[in-house]
Amino acid sequence: MKNNRTTIFNLDKKNNKIHIEHNFSVHLVKVWIAFTDSKMLDQWWAPKPWKARTEKMDFSEGGKWLYVMMGPKGDKHWGRTDYKTIIPQESFTALDGFCNSKGELIQDLPQIHWSTYFKEDNNLTKVNFDLTFNTLDDLEKLLEMGMKEGFTAALENLDSILEEN
After folding, report:
1. Cβ-count burial of 80 within 10 angstroms (0-12 exposed, 13-18 middle, 19+ buried)?
2. Which of 59, 61, 68 is nearest to 38 (CA)?
3. Are 153 and 121 a contacting pair, CB within 8 Å?
4. 69 φψ region: left (φ > 0), alpha (ψ -120 to 50), beta (else)
5. How far apart are CA 95 and CA 118, in angstroms?
6. Whole-number Å distance between alpha carbons of 145 and 69
7. pLDDT digits over 100-136, tens only?
C-alpha cells in the first residue's frame, strides 16, 4: 500500500484552538468505522504501551462514550466523550473530558470540544480535527500532559491497523 500519511499539528493560542490534519491511505468508510466503532477504537485510541477499553458507547447525537486508558503499570485514566452532532461519513462534534469510572466529569481538568471532518480525495481520506478549549490555560495544560505526542502516536496506531486490513 502506498503510504501517503501526513500529520499537521497547528496551535492557535490566540483562539485557544488546535488544528490537526491526518491523511490515511484507505477509503473513508474504513476510517469512519475506526472512529465510530468501540471495538476499533479500543485497538488504537491509546498510545502504546497504553491500552484503551470501552466501558460503554452510544455513537449517536446525545450519546456518550465512556472509556479507560490503562497504562503498563496499572495506571487508569477515564475519559468521556459526549456526541453533539453527527453527519455519517462526513463529520461529528463532541465534548471530551476526563472523568471517573462512573462517567462523572472531573471539573478541575480541561474539556475539549472536538469537531472532526472526513473527506476522501485521490484515494486518501483526510481527517481534520478542530479542537477548541475554554481557556489558553486548558490548552497548555493538555499539551504539558503530552496530548500532542499521545494523539500523534494513536494516529500512527490507526495507520498500522488500517494498513494491515
Report:
1. buried
2. 59
3. no
4. beta
5. 18
6. 14
7. 999 999 999 999 999 999 999 888 999 999 999 999 9
pLDDT tens profile 60-106? 999 999 999 999 999 999 999 999 999 999 999 999 999 999 999 99
Four-point Cα dihedral 82, 149, 119, 27, nearest 10? -100
Write out the three cell numbers for 64.
456518550
Question: Using CB atoms within 10 A of its CB, is residue 137 exposed (0-12), middle (13-18) or buried (19+)?
Answer: exposed
Single pTM value for the model:
0.92
| 110-124 CB burial, b ≥16 within 10 A, e <16 | bbbbbbbebebeeeb
User: If you search the block for the grid coordinates 490534519, which residue do you land on?
Assistant: 21
Edge-to-edge order in the sheet of strand 7-12: 7-12, 17-24, 124-133, 111-121, 91-99, 76-87, 64-70, 51-57
81/69 Cα distance (integer angstroms): 13
End-to-end CA distance of the chain: 11
Grid coordinates of 3: 503510504
In angstroms, rounded to a whole number, what is the distance separating the alpha carbons of residues 152 and 44? 11
